[in-house]
Specification:
Elements lengths: L1 H11 L37 H18 L3 H6 L4 H15 L3 E4 L2 E8 L8 E9 L2 E4 L7 E3 L2 E12 L2 E9 L3
Antiparallel strand pairs: 1-4, 2-3, 3-6, 4-5, 6-7
Helix pairs in contact: 2-4
């Protein structure tokens, strides 16, 4: 378990940056638009793709690492036991007086599987993890993680208004 969490921390600590310069717009506030009482998207709205969801999920992960606030990450991962365990771990670092400093992952390439019978998909992402510093708890020494390349698979399941992460795994090199 510690090895799994260390791998997720080492790699997950690096998830703040999004996939490209263009993806930074996901953090921009939305333009004001009229509200609708319908839960159906309007014809002018496009549904979020699995790859767009994963980019937001990566941003939420890195926000959690850099702040200790896992609310958005948890909201995007309610059916992902290893994601929730990882969120507990990161929040525990902050609760113990530790911290994480990272610029996150740069997603170099992503690809989405064909949907399953239930509509679920797997998004495979090749990432460059930026360097990170982290302190497990107050008074502990700073641990430094170097930049490295890795591949991950994020399993998603569709929900009424988008996607949720259901699993997250590292692909062995």
């Amino acid at each position: 378990m510690k090895r799994f969490l260390a791998a997720l921390t080492c790699c997950g600590l690096l998830a703040l940056s999004s996939c490209s310069d263009e993806s930074s717009s996901s953090a921009d506030p939305p333009s004001p638009t009229p509200t609708s009482t319908s839960s159906e998207p309007s014809p002018s709205q496009e549904a979020e793709t699995p790859e767009e969801f994963v980019r937001r999920w990566v941003d939420a992960d890195t926000h959690m690492q850099n702040t200790g606030d896992g609310a958005d990450y948890r909201e995007m991962s309610p059916e992902c036991p290893n994601c929730l365990e990882y969120a507990d771990y990161i929040e525990g670092i902050w609760d113990a007086g530790g911290y994480v400093k990272t610029d996150g992952w740069l997603i170099k390439r992503s690809r989405t599987s064909e949907p399953t019978e239930t509509g679920g998909v797997e998004v495979t992402i090749d990432v460059t993890s930026t360097p990170a510093d982290f302190v497990a708890k107050e008074g502990d020494p700073v641990q430094h993680y170097e930049k490295h390349e890795q591949t991950y698979i994020v399993a998603l399941q569709p929900i009424d208004d988008g996607w949720v992460a259901t699993n997250f795994s590292e692909v062995a090199k």
